């Protein structure tokens, strides 16, 4: 028995107005639309003080979990600050694989040192086998004696980089 794709919720990337990620996420939550806004903390320095500030990991984007039904997509698009739902074919939003969202959520929950990283098409796919990030998959990049795991979000053509111990990964 095949489940109608329009009825099962999937994750979609939503492009929002510049610097409106937190506002749009709050507005969507008020409409009871599940969202995920990956965030990182950075220390900002001024002349007289330092402060930890929270920034979106992917500026200009948030993720929503909804069905492909037109009325549900329209509910997202009607929220002030939403520019569009990311799609390669106009009117056909591209779902994001659940495992990419789950891996992102796990990385953000771990509160490691995350940095945006350019999207990669090539490289060795690996899975972390030990520690709090066990099970996360990505692309392994070796750079200046450091090993970096890159988790790519295909639809956004962006990724996140995390320095890891190469002994903690296995080939997929």
Notable features of this structure?
Alpha-Beta Plaits; 172 residues; single chain; six-stranded antiparallel sheet; SH3 type barrels; 18% helix; alpha+beta; five-stranded antiparallel sheet; 2 domains; 13 strands; globular
How are the strands of the largest sheet arranged?
8-12-11-10-9-13
What is the straight-line distance between the termini? Answer: 30 Å
- Tell me the name of the CATH class of the largest domain: Alpha Beta
Overall geometry comes to globular
The name of the CATH topology of the largest domain is: Alpha-Beta Plaits
Low-pLDDT ranges: none
Q: Helix coverage percent of residues?
A: 10-25%
Q: Give a short account of the largest sheet.
A: 6 strands, antiparallel
Average of the residue pLDDT scores: 85
Output the CATH homologous superfamily of the largest domain.
NusG, N-terminal domain
Class derived from helix and strand content: alpha+beta
Which value, in Å, is the CA radius of gyration? 17 Å
Count of distinct strands: 13
- Count of individual domains: 2
Number of helices: 3
Instruction: Using the 3D structure, state the CATH architecture of the largest domain.
Output: 2-Layer Sandwich
Could you explain how this protein is built, in words?
- The chain has 172 residues and is of the alpha+beta class.
- It folds into 2 domains: 10-96, Alpha-Beta Plaits (2-Layer Sandwich), CATH 3.30.70.940; 108-171, SH3 type barrels (Roll), CATH 2.30.30.
- Helix content is 18%, strand content 41%.
- It is built from 3 helices and 13 strands; from the N terminus they run E-H-E-E-E-E-H-E-E-H-E-E-E-E-E-E.
- Strands 8-12-11-10-9-13 form a 6-stranded antiparallel β-sheet, covered by helices on one side. Strands 1, 2, 5, 6 and 7 form a 5-stranded antiparallel β-sheet that branches. It has a two-stranded antiparallel sheet with strand order 3-4.
- Strand 9 and strand 10 (137-143) form a beta hairpin.
- The two termini are 30 Å apart.
């Amino acid at each position: 028995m095949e489940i109608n794709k329009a009825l099962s919720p999937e994750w979609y990337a939503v492009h929002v107005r510049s610097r409106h990620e937190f506002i749009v996420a709050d507005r969507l939550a008020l409409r009871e639309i599940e969202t995920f806004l990956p965030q990182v903390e950075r220390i900002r320095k001024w002349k007289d003080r330092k402060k930890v500030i929270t920034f979106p990991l992917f500026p200009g984007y948030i993720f929503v979990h909804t069905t492909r039904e037109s009325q549900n997509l329209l509910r997202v698009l009607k929220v002030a600050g939403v520019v569009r739902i990311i799609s390669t074919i106009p009117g056909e939003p591209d779902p994001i694989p659940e495992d990419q969202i789950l891996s992102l959520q796990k990385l953000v929950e771990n509160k490691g040192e995350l940095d945006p990283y350019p999207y990669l098409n090539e490289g060795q796919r690996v899975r972390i086998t030990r520690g709090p990030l066990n099970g996360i998959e990505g692309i392994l990049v070796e750079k200046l004696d450091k090993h970096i795991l890159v988790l790519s979000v295909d639809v956004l053509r962006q990724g996140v980089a995390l320095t890891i111990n190469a002994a903690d990964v296995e080939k997929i």
